[in-house]
Amino acid sequence: MRVAIISDIHSNLEAFREVLADIDRSHVDHIVSLGDNIGYGPEPEEVLRLIRVRNIPSIMGNHELGIIDPSRLSWFNQYARRSLEMNRELLSPGDIEYIHTLAPAFTLDRCLFVHGFPPDSTTTYLFEVSDFRLKRVLLSQNQELCFVGHTHDLELISFDGQRVRHARLPQGEIPLQEGSQYLINAGSVGQPRDGDNRAKYLIWDTQSRRLEARFLRYDIAKTVQGILALGLPRINADRLW
Question: How far apart are the C-alpha atoms of 126 and 131, rounded to whole Å?
Fold first, then answer.
């Protein structure tokens, strides 16, 4: 089975379309979204419509949580908060109802999918967690792999039962070892923050045990134009480059 893992689209329809086109050419069996489908970008409704039309299971991200629980908005910085408030104005009642249905975690074939940190945190950043806590959490997990997003930065964490190892996740394929557990950050489709402005997503092949990070160019200028035309914070456009 081949599973495509997407994360942090952030209302960037141009990047999302490019990723979906590449997924369709890659013969995957399932697509899973790790949340934060909205926020920052200019097209939240269009992104959610595509997710729903394509029947892509999605989990709750912190930006979705901010939509359905306004008390959480104080957690965001001023630019993210303003972006999310403006995104909410662009969503239909049906979109809001759909967001209410999202769960904080999802499992598929020995894999756990969560936005921030296992087992079900939407707000914990991976870089906030010590190796001691990582060991404790991974030892308590039944799943072999856990995929997270939230930081917008690709990362591979492996655990052999004794030692935790951190590594950057490069473009291309890498094999994952039988008997180890992995915590994998899928990066971001629509707001990458790793110094490479291409849209990122992963493909996990359960039979070959190979993980592939795919990097795709898209029309950044068109997304930037949409951000500025709506009056969203300029920083949302500037950091796409």
Answer: 10
Query: What is the count of structural domains for the chain?
Result: 1
Any residues with CB less than 8 A from the CB of 122 and at least 6 apart, and which?
Answer: 35, 60, 61, 62, 64, 65, 104, 114, 115, 116, 150
- Tokens at 190, concatenated: 């629509």
Q: For 90-110, give one letter per residue: b (16+ CB within 10 A) or e.
A: bbeeebeebbeebebbbebee
∠ Cα 25 28 31 (to 5°)? 110
CATH (domain of 7): 3.60.21.10
Are the C-beta atoms of residues 6 and 201 closer than 8 Å to each other?
A: yes
Q: Which domain holds residue 214?
A: 2-238
75 contacts 62 by C-beta, under 8 angstroms: yes
Tracing tokens 């939407």 back to the chain, one arrives at: 122
Cα–chain-centroid distance for residue 91?
A: 20
Claim: this prediction has a pTM higher than 0.85: yes
pLDDT in tens, 85-117: 999 999 999 999 999 999 999 999 889 999 999
Asked if residues 141 and 130 have their Cβ atoms less than 8 Å apart, the reply is no
| pLDDT one-digit tens code per residue, 145-157 | 999 999 999 999 9
For residue 68, give every residue at least 6 positions away whose Cβ sits within 8 Å of its Cβ, in sequence order, or none: 96, 99, 100
Which tokens belong to 238? Answer: 């500037």
